[in-house]
Every structure is written in C-alpha cells, then in structure tokens.
Design a protein that fits this description.
single chain, 114 residues, YaeB-like fold, five-stranded mixed β-sheet, 30% strand
C-alpha cells in the first residue's frame, strides 16, 4: 500500500512545512526528502526515524539529524493512506518544546474539522 504525502495548508494557502523544508541547506533538504520518499512506500518508519508522540492522539514525528542540526517534523496518518505534515522546527534542546507540540496539535484539529 502506498502513501501520499500532504502538507498542512493555512487558510491563506501557505504550507509552513514545505516552506521550512525549502529553507534548509541542500544536503539536509535531500535527507528530509529521502525520508519522505521512504514514508511514501512504508508509512511509519521504525525508530529512531519516526515515533508516536507520547500523550498526543495520532501525532507522530519524523526525526532528522544532519550536519546543521536536529529537525523534527510532526505528522499524522489520515484516511489510512495520507501522511499529513503539520509542523516542522529545528530542535535545540533535549525536550521537545510544548509550544511546538501545541502548534502541531492545533493544526491536526483544524485538518480533522475540515
């Protein structure tokens, strides 16, 4: 079963995760895109690449480490075969900041409400 990668889109037509990916350096962008391609065929890739977020219903994270830093991409699987990328950020501390999880959770609620 193949998966389709979708990007959360704001009411104004912006796609924050796509914009974030496009802002990365070429090597990191290539690494992220390679993981997304792999997710198209496999869905959730085993740890340490993806993991389900503790205490957050359907929220998962893609974990990417590159020479420029550590990046997290929050997503969920929708309607069985769509991976919807909700939020992305560069991780700078041991704990994932609550504010980043809240952004992803709010976007998840908006997608499910639509």
């Amino acid at each position: 079963m193949g998966y389709e990668i979708k990007f959360y889109t704001t009411a104004y037509g912006k796609q924050p995760v796509r914009e974030f990916i496009n802002s990365l350096d070429i090597k990191t962008r290539a690494k992220v895109m390679a993981f997304l391609e792999r997710m198209k065929s496999e869905g959730n890739i085993p740890l340490p690449v993806t993991r389900k977020m503790e205490g957050a219903r359907e929220l998962h994270e893609l974990r990417v480490k590159s020479h420029t830093g550590i990046y997290r991409f929050f997503y969920f699987v929708y309607l069985g075969n769509q991976i919807v990328l909700l939020h992305a950020f560069q991780k700078k501390s041991q704990q994932t900041p609550t504010k980043e999880i809240e952004v992803a959770t709010e976007r998840l609620a908006l997608v499910l409400k639509a």
